[in-house]
């Protein structure tokens, strides 16, 4: 930043209208800068310019996405929002799960910092999303992460994977939050632009709900937590809203540095403040730091705030006012406190050794006024900073290459019919980077802490007990298949939704709500903007069909290297509830001689599949069809079967198809199986390859104890879910046997599945 | 019997330890690092976590916290004290147990269901096990490598002070596969794995019989309820 050490005051700004300001270095376009001048009726001070630049950045203002995201608020029915206590627009959505409990959850990106400085980037990604959860009044109870890396064998991938995983491990483990799931993909499109999407979920009693608003004239504005330092300056505007150019300067100073110990203490401190009713409104400090917190709190409250910036406790006393306003130092919160509660507030912060300082007070002036060394350096209408930023209807263009890509169907490839060749194909898929066991990663995460984890990786969904008396709990899953989305962003986004929905349903829970993290290339590229618009439309339409609302989320643009955008990657997180986590469905087989049933029908759908990608190095054609009616029927059946205790396990069919899911069932607890394809082939009219590898949706496999067979089939018939008995569990064989085609020993399956990540990143302890 | 669990800033598994005590049939009592009052408890658990951020050295700052002076006094008078993971590190830093704990030999944090052998049952925390019994308990740490000089190791072995040993896999490079120690009196025990995460069916480690069904840690908390102050 270029500015004088003498603060630029409002008075000075009015007197020197001609002063040249470096708005372009702060990421503002000339017309945006002009608009600020129009709003203020003068040039902005350097402090105001800092605030507008970060708050009007793509990351904070959603200026390119807003016009599309509105659909999430419009495409809803009253039935969809009946469980919703807080919807989109707050730090995180809040969903009523019954018994006086509510759950808040959100997924957010920290992509760009995680490429520059993988460890700190990923660590602070976890820290940031957890603070969003605290600021709703909730105790964080679990985290998950959706990761995308470059090619597994690229020389730089090891650096990024190692840094990101240890960053998440370091921060999440030190916070004492169980990491219960997520997903990891490798694809060259993410080589110089990995995706790190972190999800956090928290639980609260209804009466503890808190919101980010500054109400009550005369109430105090208190900043507490870590001191403000020089890290993350301009992170929001410069990092998250710019494209990495090949060979450009590194941007390390703009990445924040995290201290999970400070955040752990802050969590406990906040919860004690909430319990003591010490807080009127609260906001975490994330992107854009104090600029964001003050302007958002004031906008959402009585409209005004008067702040003395000198009262901010600093780690580095040489920071300028503009740097203090922009700093993204972690582990900070801003609270609105009634004056008579201040002593009680400070007693709690003192107990936890958390530093706090009163910055100012709430006013109804409609102005956010910030003083520094006795002079006014900011005097703005906070809504112009936080709410009424620029909104763009970016040009969109149907991608020129898309028709050719969709026409290039994998049906052109010859299909194998012999057991040996099919075994080879299957093992190649099972050991491929995107299907391989992720123990190397998840063994670095603690899923035991808090003692409430009912399901965790490698289960398809994570599940946490919320109420220790009743067993009430929630399940969560995240999904996104960038390959499907590249072929068709509308359908691809819906496929992410139904996959995540199905994962929650196969755990035995009832899906209730959605959070999304929409990762795309540059919005200034009309083809990317078209992909984005189609994905949002698909997701909004899909949520309407399934009857579950989007409660919040995050958009991450500019995910590209040079002019090569990533595949559209809308990560969809679905949350569901379950009356008692004791009724959860395991994702593998534990008992001998149980019948294996395939639910749903199989079509020949191999476009964008793991089979096409792994066996033929191919991406083309169209992705699988979405059938919301079938998804709902399947989810309803699984929920009922779990409730009745009628099935002993359930596994969702996703990438890799039927045999991949069977392998999951075998590998989870080491119980083998014999399966047959004849009835799938004859009933559904597909060939062996499709029966084994097709990625048709709305399918799952379940195991049923023999005594429940008749009842179970009756349940399927009653609910209109197609069902076929396709196998039986077989503990003795220690193998996966596909009748008439092949037998694969359990040890071979395990070795293939578990060997891939360690081969690239190092051994897993204990093998 | 009242069993206290100390919460340090950065303690993570304190609530889990409180739950484990309750499930074992004891009365769980929360204790605060900054106080000197042990609230009349009969035994104490130092839980896992990253006390004071584990800056300096794991457990080093916690070992000098106000309440630890009371804990050290009480331990020297025979009160049962169990240190789990970070709590083990605190006990070592407080010189209530021998040796030291360093970064895992493979360099990363590791979480796994760990098989242990109970080597000594003449303690306040292991008397419900049998000698040589193999148990499965979750392990999760970044700095769990147990070290001591050869002479100390020989003494620990000779005096029967090794309480638990890793079986099948040594997950962190601990010398002689040592997972946990006792003191000479048998009232103080420390171990890296987490018995409080294997106390409740449905939330413990996977076992051959059923997923998440492992409760091998419960006996550690039941042991102390059966113990009287050891002299």
pLDDT under 50 segments of chain B (min length 5)?
A: none
Helix content of chain A: 25-40%
Beta percentage of chain B is: 15-25%
Order of secondary-structure elements of chain B: EHEEHEHEEEEHEEEH
Report the portion of residues of chain A in β strands.
15-25%
Helix vs. strand class of chain B: alpha/beta
Summed up, what is this model?
The complex is a heterodimer of chains A (767) and B (231). Chain A has 767 residues and is an alpha+beta fold.
Q: What are the key terms here?
A:
heterodimer, A: 767 residues, alpha+beta, Phosphoribosyl-aminoimidazole Synthetase, Chain A, domain 2, B: 231 residues, alpha/beta, nine-stranded mixed beta sheet, two-stranded antiparallel ribbon, 11 strands
Describe the structure.
The complex is a heterodimer of chains A (767) and B (231). Chain A is 36% helix and 22% strand. In chain A, the strands form five sheets. A seven-stranded mixed sheet of chain A has the order 8-10-7-11-9-12-13. In chain A, strands 23-25-22-26-24-27-28 form a seven-stranded mixed sheet. A six-stranded mixed sheet of chain A has the order 1-2-3-6-4-5. In chain A, helix 7 packs parallel to helix 10, helix 8 packs parallel to helix 10 and helix 16 packs across helix 21. Chain B has 231 residues and is of the alpha/beta class. Chain B has a single domain, classed as Rossmann fold. In chain B, the strands form two sheets. Chain B has a nine-stranded mixed sheet, with helices on both faces. A two-stranded antiparallel sheet of chain B has the order 5-8. Classes of the chains: A alpha+beta (767), B alpha/beta (231).
């Amino acid at each position: 930043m270029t500015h004088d050490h003498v603060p630029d005051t409002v008075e000075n700004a009015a007197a020197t209208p001609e002063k040249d300001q470096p708005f372009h270095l702060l990421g503002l376009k000339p017309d945006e800068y002009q608009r600020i001048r129009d709003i203020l009726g003068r040039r902005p001070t350097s402090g105001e310019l800092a605030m507008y630049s970060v708050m009007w950045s793509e990351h904070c203002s959603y200026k390119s996405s807003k016009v599309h995201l509105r659909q999430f608020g419009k495409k809803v029915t009253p039935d969809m929002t009946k469980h919703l206590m807080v919807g989109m627009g707050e730090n995180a959505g809040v969903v009523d799960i019954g018994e006086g409990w509510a759950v808040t959850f959100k997924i957010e990106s920290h992509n760009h910092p995680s490429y520059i400085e993988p460890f700190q980037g990923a660590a602070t990604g976890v820290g940031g999303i957890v603070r969003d959860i605290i600021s709703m009044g909730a105790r964080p109870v679990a985290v998950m992460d959706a990761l995308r890396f470059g090619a597994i064998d690229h020389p730089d991938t090891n650096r990024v994977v190692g840094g990101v995983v240890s960053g998440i491990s370091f921060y999440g483990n030190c916070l004492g939050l169980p990491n219960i799931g997520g997903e990891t993909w490798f694809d060259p499109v993410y080589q110089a632009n990995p995706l790190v999407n972190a999800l956090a979920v928290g639980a609260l009693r209804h009466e503890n709900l808190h919101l980010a608003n500054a109400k009550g004239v005369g109430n105090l504005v208190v900043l507490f937590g870590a001191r403000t330092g020089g890290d993350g300056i301009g992170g929001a505007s410069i990092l998250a809203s710019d494209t990495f150019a090949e060979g450009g300067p590194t941007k390390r100073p703009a990445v924040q540095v995290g201290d999970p110990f400070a955040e752990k203490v802050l969590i406990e401190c906040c919860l004690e403040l909430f319990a003591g009713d010490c807080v009127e409104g609260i906001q975490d400090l994330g992107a854009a730091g104090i600029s964001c917190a003050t302007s958002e709190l004031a906008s959402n409250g009585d409209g005004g705030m008067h702040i003395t910036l000198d009262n901010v406790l600093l780690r580095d006393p040489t920071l300028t006012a503009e740097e203090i306003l922009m700093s993204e130092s972690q582990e900070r919160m801003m609270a609105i406190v009634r004056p008579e509660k201040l002593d009680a507030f400070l007693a709690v912060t003192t107990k936890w050794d958390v530093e706090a300082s009163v910055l100012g007070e709430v006013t109804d002036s409609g102005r956010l006024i910030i003083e520094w060394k006795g002079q006014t350096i900011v005097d703005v209408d906070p809504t112009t900073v936080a709410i009424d930023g620029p909104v763009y209807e970016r040009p969109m263009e149907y991608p020129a290459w898309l028709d050719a890509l969709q026409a290039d169907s994998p049906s052109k490839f010859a299909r194998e019919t012999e057991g040996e060749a099919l075994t080879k194909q299957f093992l190649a898929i099972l050991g491929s980077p995107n299907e391989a066991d992720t123990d190397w990663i998840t063994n670095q995460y603690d899923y035991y802490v808090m003692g409430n984890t009912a399901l965790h990786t490698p289960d398809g969904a994570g599940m946490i007990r919320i109420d220790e008396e009743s067993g009430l709990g929630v399940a969560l899953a995240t999904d996104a298949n960038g390959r499907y989305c590249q072929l068709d962003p509308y359908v691809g986004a819906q496929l992410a939704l139904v996959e995540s929905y199905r994962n929650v349903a196969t755990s035995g829970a009832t899906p209730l709500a959605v959070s999304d993290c929409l990762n795309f290339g540059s919005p200034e590229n009309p083809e990317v903007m078209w992909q984005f618009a189609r994905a949002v439309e698909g997701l909004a339409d899909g949520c309407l069909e399934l009857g579950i609302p989007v409660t919040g989320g995050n958009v991450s643009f500019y995910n590209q290297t040079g002019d090569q955008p990533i595949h559209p990657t809308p990560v969809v997180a679905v949350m569901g509830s379950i009356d008692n986590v004791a009724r959860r469905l395991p994702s593998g087989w534990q008992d001998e001689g149980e019948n294996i049933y395939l639910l749903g029908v199989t079509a020949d759908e191999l476009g964008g599949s793991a089979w096409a990608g792994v066996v033929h190095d191919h991406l083309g054609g169209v992705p699988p069809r979405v059938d919301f009616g079938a998804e709902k029927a399947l989810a309803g059946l699984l929920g009922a079967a779990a409730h009745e205790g009628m099935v002993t396990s359930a596994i969702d069919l996703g990438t890799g198809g039927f045999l991949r899911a069977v392998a999951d069932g075998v590998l989870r607890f080491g119980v083998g199986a014999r399966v047959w394809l004849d009835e799938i082939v004859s009933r559904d009219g597909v060939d062996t390859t499709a029966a084994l590898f097709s990625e048709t949706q709305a399918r799952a496999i379940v195991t049923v104890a023999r005594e429940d067979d008749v009842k179970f089939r009756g349940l399927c018939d009653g609910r209109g879910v197609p069902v076929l008995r396709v196998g039986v569990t077989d503990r003795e064989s220690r193998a996966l046997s596909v009748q008439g085609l092949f037998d694969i020993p359990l040890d071979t399956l395990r070795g293939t599945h578990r060997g891939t990540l360690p081969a690239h990143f190092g051994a897993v302890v204990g093998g | 019997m009242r069993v206290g669990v100390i919460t340090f800033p950065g303690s993570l598994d304190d609530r889990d330890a409180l739950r484990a005590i309750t499930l074992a049939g004891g009365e769980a009592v929360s204790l605060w690092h900054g106080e000197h009052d042990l609230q009349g408890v009969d035994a104490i658990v130092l839980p896992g976590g990253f006390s004071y951020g584990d800056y300096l050295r794991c457990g080093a700052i916690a070992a000098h916290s106000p309440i630890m002076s009371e804990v050290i006094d009480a331990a020297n008078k025979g009160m049962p004290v169990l240190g789990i993971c970070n709590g083990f590190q605190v006990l070592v830093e407080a010189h209530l147990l021998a040796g030291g704990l360093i970064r895992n030999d493979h360099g990363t944090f590791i979480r796994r269901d760990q098989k242990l052998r109970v080597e000594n049952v003449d303690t306040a925390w292991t008397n419900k096990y049998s000698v040589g019994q193999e148990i499965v308990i979750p392990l999760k740490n970044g700095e769990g490598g147990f070290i001591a000089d050869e002479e100390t190791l020989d003494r620990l072995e000779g005096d029967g002070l090794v309480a638990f040993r890793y079986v099948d896999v040594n997950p962190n490079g601990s010398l002689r596969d040592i997972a946990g120690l006792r003191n000479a009196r048998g009232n103080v025990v420390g171990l890296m794995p987490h018995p409080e995460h294997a106390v409740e069916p449905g939330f413990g480690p996977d076992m051959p019989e059923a997923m998440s069904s492992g409760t091998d840690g419960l006996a550690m908390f039941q042991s102390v309820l059966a113990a009287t102050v050891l002299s």
